[in-house]
Amino acid sequence: MSSSMQTKKEARNGTYTFSSHPRPLQNRSKYREPAAESNEGSSNYVNIMYDRRVVRGNTYAQHILPLAAQPDPIEIQRQQEARRRAAARKRAKAQFRSRTPEAVDGRTHVDVQTELYLEELSDHVEECSVECQTDAFLDKPASPLFIPAKSGKDVATQIEEGELFDFDVEVRPLLEVLVGKTIEQSLVEVMEEEELASLRARQRLFEELRNAELVEVQRLEERERRHREEKERRLKQQREVLRKEKETAEKIAARAYAQQYLVDLLPSVYTTLKDHGYFYDPVERDLETEFFPWLMAQVNNTLEKRNVARAVLDMLLRDVTQHKSDLFQQMAHKSPDSN
């Protein structure tokens, strides 16, 4: 009765707790038996998908099943401590946070979500992850070969001092061989050193000859380079001379052709230009453009003045004649009256 009440209380609190009675572990061998592996009972699960202790699916909406076992008091105490710390942290935040002023009369404050994206507010189930690392099963090594047990009694032979061999007699040939091999190896090493010295001397001589040949090759290459540059320079000069000679010949030919072409053209052109007035005598042109117009202007002025004088004279003569004619007519009219 007490366990069911405890389970209902935890269900109301929104936590899920699993506990089981302690049980001793089964003795198992270090290596995995292939034959026994297939004959194991349902208690040893190889695949965790068939383990009833593994919870599959969404754990947020997990239904709390009543458990027959009592919950762990340490876990309950830890959860209560966590809730107390959360409440204390919430109260501390509420104290340090600036409070909203009280609403005026007739109005009330309403909680409004101000996040960028709307989020459904719901109670989240507290959860925790627990892991358990087990040793991997090792493949069973190959069975050792069958060695039958030894039967019977061992037989021993005792050898007294001097019965097996004489140390001085037996060791002398071995010592001679070792000393001979050592001397032979030393002689071989000395001969190798002499051969290496000879090889080094030959190598130095070869390097000296090679350096001398390299110097000679460099000298010959430098001389060949100078000859090649001189040859290119001479060829360039010769090409330049040929080009200038060709240009000179072309200019002379063009000049001769132009002279031959212009022999008959120049007189006709000059005659045409002269006829059109492009070639003229400066004195004649000055007389025609400056003196003759001025002279004609002066002559015209003189003639105009003479014509004006003649016209004035004619007017005077006409007036005098008219006046005389009038006088004579008056005299002619007066004379009959007087008679």
Characterise the protein shown here.
With 339 residues, the chain is mostly helical. It has a domain at 1-19 and 34-95. It has 6 helices and 2 strands. It has helices at residues 2-13, 34-38, 73-96, 167-262, 265-275, 282-338, and strands at residues 31-32, 138-139. A two-stranded parallel sheet has the order 1-2. The longest helix is centred in the middle third of the chain and has 96 residues, at 167-262. The termini are far apart.
Features:
Radial spoke head 3; phosphoprotein; 339 residues; disordered N terminus; two-stranded parallel ribbon; flagellum; 1% strand; cytoplasm; mainly alpha; cilium; 2 strands; flat
Specify the number of helices: 6
Strand arrangement across the biggest beta sheet: 1-2
- Distance linking N and C termini: 201 Å
Shape: flat
Mean pLDDT: 78
Report the count of strand segments: 2
Radius of gyration: 73 Å
H/E topology pattern: HEHHEHHH
Into which percentage range does the β-strand content fall?
under 5%
What share of the residues lie within helices?
Answer: 55-70%
In brief, what are we looking at here?
This protein has 6 helices and 2 strands, in the order αβααβααα. With 339 residues, it is mainly alpha-helical. The chain is flat.
Topology of helices and strands:
Blueprint: H1 2-13, E1 31-32, H2 34-38, H3 73-96, E2 138-139, H4 167-262, H5 265-275, H6 282-338
Pfam families: Radial_spoke_3
Family: Belongs to the flagellar radial spoke RSP3 family.
Coiled coil: 210-259
